[in-house]
Write a structure and sequence with these properties.
Layout (H helix, E strand, L loop, with lengths): L6 E5 L6 H15 L6 E5 L5 H8 L5 E4 L15 H4 L5 E4 L2 H6 L4 H13 L3 E6 L3 H5 L3 H12 L5 H6 L3 E4 L13 H19 L1 H6 L1 E5 L7 H5 L6 E4 L6 H18 L1
Parallel strand pairs: 1-2, 1-8, 2-3, 3-4, 4-5, 5-6, 6-7, 7-8
The chain binds 1,3-dihydroxyacetonephosphate.
The site of 1,3-dihydroxyacetonephosphate has 14 residues, from β8.
Length: about 260
């Protein structure tokens, strides 16, 4: 467990109607209220953001969007950064589902990162290798290239000042039940931190929070949260029910308390 404040974020992806989202958000708010030392954030679908925001108001639970487009204009179906400013704290960009199912490339993700900073929004930048890249031993090269491309021309201090986060999510571990080995995730995340340090200096690297994501569940959460480089989790499937999500927050808090 690191000195940085861990963050457990639930990425609800394309799940939950607005009433269902409100119900789960209310449950989370109540359940995590007494838990100290861990930040919690929820990332519902766009249409539930406002209703969930009302549910979270007065609580310490953060709110994130799952995607964003670059600007306002004639872009049917898209959401512009200005629409999210003041509405949510975080915006996930570069998720592997956006990269690989919706064809988003590093250049677009870099532009999204820059526009988020210009609109006072904290990015959660996701990076991760595909199964075949992992099997070819290319993991470090792939995530390093994604990180460098993502931060091209970006003010790292501004990223940190806004609370920006990186999430390492190996594509083969997402929604598969096959999580990465904890020490392996720790090593890759350590490498990402080193690269961030090469760009912005050692203090910036030390301050940066990097989450692990990919089949995190109550049965394996300790394996990740025990690692010194890992500052929380970005959780898909296990964030959709309180019974699975709450233990992730509780265990992270317990492990953190044990190291203090
Ligand atoms: P799962 O937890 O369902 O594997 O999803 C991880 C993820 O993609 C979070 O962004």
């Amino acid at each position: 467990m690191s000195k940085r404040r861990p963050i457990i974020a639930g990425n609800w992806k394309c799940h939950k109607t607005v009433p269902e989202a409100v119900e789960l958000a209310a449950q989370v708010v109540q359940a995590v209220a007494p838990i100290q030392g861990v930040e919690v954030a929820l990332c519902p679908p766009f249409i539930a953001l406002n209703a969930v925001r009302r549910e979270l108001s007065g609580s310490a639970v953060g709110l994130g969007a799952q995607n964003v487009y670059l600007e306002e204009g004639a872009y049917t179906g898209e959401i512009a950064p200005r629409m999210l400013t003041g509405l949510c704290d975080y915006v996930i960009i570069g998720h592997s589902e956006r990269r690989h199912q919706f064809g988003e490339d590093d250049q677009l993700i870099n532009a999204k990162l820059r526009t988020l900073l210009a609109h006072d929004l904290a990015p959660i930048l996701c990076v991760g290798e595909k199964l075949e890249q992992n099997e070819r031993g290319e993991t470090e090269a792939v995530v390093a290239a994604q990180l460098r491309a993502g931060f091209k021309g970006v003010d790292g201090q501004r990223f940190l000042a806004l609370g920006g986060i990186i999430a390492y999510e190996p594509v083969w571990a997402i929604g598969t039940g096959k999580a990465c080995h904890g020490p392996t995730a720790n090593r890759i995340i350590g490498r990402l931190r080193q690269l961030f340090g090469d760009l912005y200096g050692p203090e910036a690297a030390e301050a940066l929070r990097i989450q692990y994501g990919g089949s995190v569940k109550p049965a394996n959460v300790d394996e990740f949260m025990e690692q010194p480089e890992i500052d929380g989790a970005l959780v898909g499937g296990a964030s959709l029910q309180l019974e699975a999500f709450l233990p992730l927050v509780q265990r992270t808090a317990a492990l953190r308390a044990a190291t203090e």
